[in-house]
């Protein structure tokens, strides 16, 4: 039982102070006038003021509470390196037993693993949550069993007692890691982009490690090896080989004695994009839809368009001065002989042979296509005439032969069954409200090769796509697409169709007919297989460790099959289906846990020093435990200390008034009466 005097004033303290000052003034007046009873009056005033302060004797029955020591065990991935897990387990068991054997002391063990996602070691979060579950006044200290590599120092709690860090690891530990300092998300095709890499040794690295082999692999291909200097930045120029996603893997072979090779690999996924797309548009003669292709291509800021319209063929003699016909002469030799390779796409819009482009130039266009170029024929009645481009060297690369018949009737274009699977026309009907408007003219074609993705009048081929050599050819058997643009009978998806067509011809990866791609979200990937076939075989996934997994792809749309897969580990996955292959990286190649692997308490040193705690290495042995007074150093060679909190629980409280009302009345009245009698005798 403990006792103490408390005050519960009947009036506010400022008012009591004023009342006391007034009483003091009256006593001073009595003393100045020579009243012999002034001491008795002063005593009466003290009794009244004392009663107004409400003094009471408080008696408490208290039950002592034990002190609590928090023991936080770091079981994150970096703590599984070398013998750190065994060190942590042995130290935790010994400390827990020693603390529990101390009188009036309890131990709370907290275990934490890797943070969600790639957030690393959340050591301070675990300590804060453990403290929140215990009364602050009972916490006598905390011990962290860790390598000191944490990623949430900003969550550090305000410690009311000593905090100690016991470092795992060995003095001879060393590690090598590969760092990619800058990796842009995209790069322009054909232009080198510079990556900055660094191979860094940390810890007690052996001598003679000034150079290290660096392996570089693109899209899972056989890696190339280079010898590079360690400990300094390396400027590495990379030119992406193709558009779309490029997966570049950098790796350094593991050395004997290093802690881990998990940070010896880095994955960089970059999208290859074209800087500028150069398009040559040759319009054979003015017509109602002559500006359709021009407007489409000019609306794309990434397209450089060169457009020529032939208003007057050489054979036409009408007496108009040449100076009034054109501001720029048609540079046929320059465009079709010298600079044809500079163009990504050539479009002939209602063009026919009229002596402007000799057969030699058209044969050069054929060779351009076979070497990897793209050619689009937007056919009008001219394509069915004797001057048709089909009756030129271009016939070798065109996928359809005109029959010389021009169908002059209304019809609604429609996508073929095969076209529903082709990325150029797939989903066009689903993305348009209502029926498509009619077109009014079509050139009858006999398909010779390629893929017919749209049909028109009498179910004749309307749009044929083909691959020739390394290039691509599209043949549109009508010049009526502009009717959709004008909204004739409701219009149609003219802009989307022509945009897809142009991008397919310029080999944009998202419009490939046969493709295998994957999209990663964390450790989960969604695999997409596009094909013109009706079935696909099983998908084979090769994990970073070399294990092969087979999945069955499910058809979700015509020509589109998908599957989902959760990768068991971080790294590069290889996908194979039929003749298609792809690679994708899941998660960072070097997780945050392995960015720094050498045990070090520098990060936690300010926090530990602020509580008078200590940082000790477990390689020197498990320290003993002792008590220290608050404010005193709580760590030394081979020992750590905790501050006893002397916490208690109050079970019963009794209040006894020291000046009850009857006693105050009796004392005050007696003193005042005695003062009056003494002064009356005088």
Walk me through the structure.
It is elongated, with a radius of gyration of 44 Å. Strand 27 (539-542) and strand 28 (548-551) form a beta hairpin. Helices cover 20% and strands 34% of the residues. The chain folds into five domains: 2-61 and 652-681, no CATH class; 66-167 and 599-646, Rossmann fold; 174-265, Sandwich (Immunoglobulin-like), CATH 2.60.40; 277-505, Class I glutamine amidotransferase (GATase) domain (Rossmann fold, 3-Layer(aba) Sandwich), CATH 3.40.50; 515-586, Immunoglobulin-like (Sandwich). The protein is built from eleven helices and 37 strands. The model has no long low-confidence stretch (mean pLDDT 86).
Indicate the proportion of strand residues. 25-35%
Shape by Cα distribution: elongated
Provide the domain count: 5
**Could you state the CATH homologous superfamily of the largest domain?**
Class I glutamine amidotransferase (GATase) domain
How is the largest sheet built, in terms of strand order? 16-15-17-18-24-23-22-20
CATH architecture of the largest domain: 3-Layer(aba) Sandwich
What is the CATH T-level topology of the largest domain? Rossmann fold
């Amino acid at each position: 039982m403990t006792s103490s005097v408390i005050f519960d004033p009947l009036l506010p303290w400022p008012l009591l102070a004023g009342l006391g000052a007034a009483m003091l003034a009256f006593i001073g007046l009595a003393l100045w006038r020579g009243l012999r009873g002034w001491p008795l009056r002063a005593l009466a005033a003290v009794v009244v003021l004392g009663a107004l302060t409400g003094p009471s004797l408080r008696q408490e029955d208290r039950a002592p509470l034990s002190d609590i020591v928090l023991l936080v065990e770091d079981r994150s991935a970096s703590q599984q390196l070398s013998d750190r897990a065994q060190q942590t387990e042995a130290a935790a068991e010994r400390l827990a037993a020693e603390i529990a054997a101390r009188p009036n002391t309890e131990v709370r063990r907290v275990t934490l693993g890797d943070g969600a996602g790639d957030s690393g070691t959340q050591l301070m979060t675990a300590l804060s949550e453990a403290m929140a579950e215990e009364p602050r006044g009972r916490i006598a200290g905390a011990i962290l069993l860790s390598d000191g590599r944490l990623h949430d120092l900003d969550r550090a709690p305000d410690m009311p007692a000593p905090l100690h860090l016991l470092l795992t690891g060995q003095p001879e530990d060393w590690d090598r890691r590969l760092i990619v300092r800058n990796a842009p998300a995209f790069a322009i095709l054909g232009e080198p982009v510079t990556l900055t890499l660094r191979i860094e040794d940390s810890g007690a690295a052996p001598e003679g490690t000034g150079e290290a082999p660096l392996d570089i692999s693109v899209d899972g291909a056989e890696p190339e090896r280079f010898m590079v200097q360690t400990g300094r930045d390396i400027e590495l120029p990379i030119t992406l080989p193709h558009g779309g996603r490029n997966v570049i893997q950098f790796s350094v072979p593991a050395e004997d004695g290093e802690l881990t090779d998990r940070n010896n690999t880095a994955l960089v996924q970059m999208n290859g994009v074209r800087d500028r797309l150069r398009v040559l548009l040759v319009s054979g003669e003015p017509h109602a839809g002559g500006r359709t292709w021009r407007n489409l291509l000019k609306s794309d800021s990434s397209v450089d368009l060169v457009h020529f319209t032939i208003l007057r063929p050489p054979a036409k003699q009408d007496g108009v001065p040449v100076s009034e016909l054109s501001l720029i002469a048609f540079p046929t030799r320059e465009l079709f002989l010298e600079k044809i390779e500079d163009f990504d796409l050539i479009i002939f819009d209602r063009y026919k042979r009229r002596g402007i482009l000799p057969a030699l130039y058209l044969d050069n266009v054929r060779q351009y296509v076979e070497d990897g170029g793209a050619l689009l024929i937007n056919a009008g009645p001219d394509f069915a005439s004797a001057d048709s481009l089909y009756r030129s060297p271009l016939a070798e690369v065109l996928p359809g032969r005109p029959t010389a018949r021009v169908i002059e009737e209304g019809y609604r274009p429609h996508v073929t069954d095969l076209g529903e699977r082709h990325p150029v026309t797939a989903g066009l009907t689903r993305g348009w409200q209502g029926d498509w408007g009619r077109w009014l003219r079509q050139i009858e074609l006999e398909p010779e090769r390629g893929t017919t993705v749209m049909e028109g009048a009498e179910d004749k081929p309307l749009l044929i796509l083909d691959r020739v050599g390394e290039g691509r050819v599209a043949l549109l058997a009508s010049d009526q697409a502009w009717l959709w643009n004008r909204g004739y009978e409701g219009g149609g998806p003219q802009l989307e169709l022509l945009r897809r067509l142009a991008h397919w011809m310029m080999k944009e990866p998202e419009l490939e007919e046969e493709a295998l791609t994957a999209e990663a979200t964390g450790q989960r990937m969604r695999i997409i297989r596009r094909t013109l076939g009706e079935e696909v075989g099983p998908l084979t996934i090769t994990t970073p460790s070399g294990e092969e997994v087979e999945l069955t792809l499910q058809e979700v749309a015509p020509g589109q099959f998908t599957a989902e897969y959760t990768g068991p580990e971080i790294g590069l996955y290889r996908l194979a289906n039929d003749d298609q292959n792809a690679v994708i990286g899941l998660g960072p190649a070097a997780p945050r846990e392995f960015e720094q692997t050498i045990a070090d308490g520098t990060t936690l040193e300010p926090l530990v020093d602020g509580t008078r705690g200590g940082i000790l290495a477990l390689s020197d042995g498990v320290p003993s435990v002792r008590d220290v007074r608050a404010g005193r150093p709580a760590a030394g060679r081979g020992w750590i200390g905790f501050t006893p909190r002397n916490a208690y629980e109050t079970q019963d409280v009794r209040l006894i008034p020291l000046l009850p009302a009857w006693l105050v009345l009796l004392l005050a009245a007696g003193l005042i009466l005695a003062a009056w009698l003494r002064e009356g005798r005088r």
